[in-house]
Design a protein that fits this description.
By secondary structure, this protein is an alpha/beta fold. The chain has one domain: NAD(P)-binding Rossmann-like Domain (Rossmann fold), CATH 3.40.50.720. Helices cover about 45% and strands about 20% of the residues. The protein contains six helices and six strands; from the N terminus they run E-H-E-H-E-H-E-H-E-H-E-H. The protein has a six-stranded parallel β-sheet, with helices on both faces. Helix 4 runs parallel beside helix 5. About 45% of the residues are buried.
Length: about 140
């Protein structure tokens, strides 16, 4: 089976757990990390042998990715997810999917247009089984 190249944006708290889960997943390859905190991103990059970025936009522009996990403050979910979807990436968004229903509607509409999946949001995202569902089980989630 092919591995999916997935990056994590936002490394504090749950984002750090996503990094650990992705690094251990047989179908995923941690392909980069982004965070405004220099120490967090440097430690994650050194530990996992990946490139780190101080700005998620640089990650979207420069990393070879299939998907991105967004573990950032709620008000950033929609704008970051929309940019990632515009770049053709699959998006796993920490809960809540967005601050407003209208933002969530925009995300879902763009996901349907740009990718084979939709922006995922979950309250149990740090659990490896949920990440496995995102990677392995959802029919047609990824075009490999």
């Amino acid at each position: 089976m092919n591995q999916l190249d997935i990056a994590v944006v936002g490394l504090r708290g749950i984002g750090g757990q996503h990094v650990k889960n992705l690094a251990q997943h047989s179908r995923a390859r941690l392909a980069g990390v982004a965070d405004i905190n220099f120490q967090l991103r440097t430690e994650a990059a050194q530990t996992h042998g990946v490139q780190s970025y101080d700005d998620y936009r640089h990650l979207l522009e420069n990393a070879q990715l299939d998907a991105v996990v967004l573990a950032v403050p709620h008000h950033l979910h929609a704008p970051m997810a929309l940019e990632a979807l515009e770049a053709g990436l699959h998006v796993f968004v920490e809960k809540p999917i967005a601050n407003r229903v209208s933002e969530a509607d925009q995300m879902v509409a763009l996901a349907k247009k740009r990718t084979a999946s939709w922006p995922w949001a979950t309250i149990t995202a740090p659990f490896p089984a949920i990440l496995s569902f995102f990677i392995d089980i959802v029919p047609g989630s990824f075009r490999l």
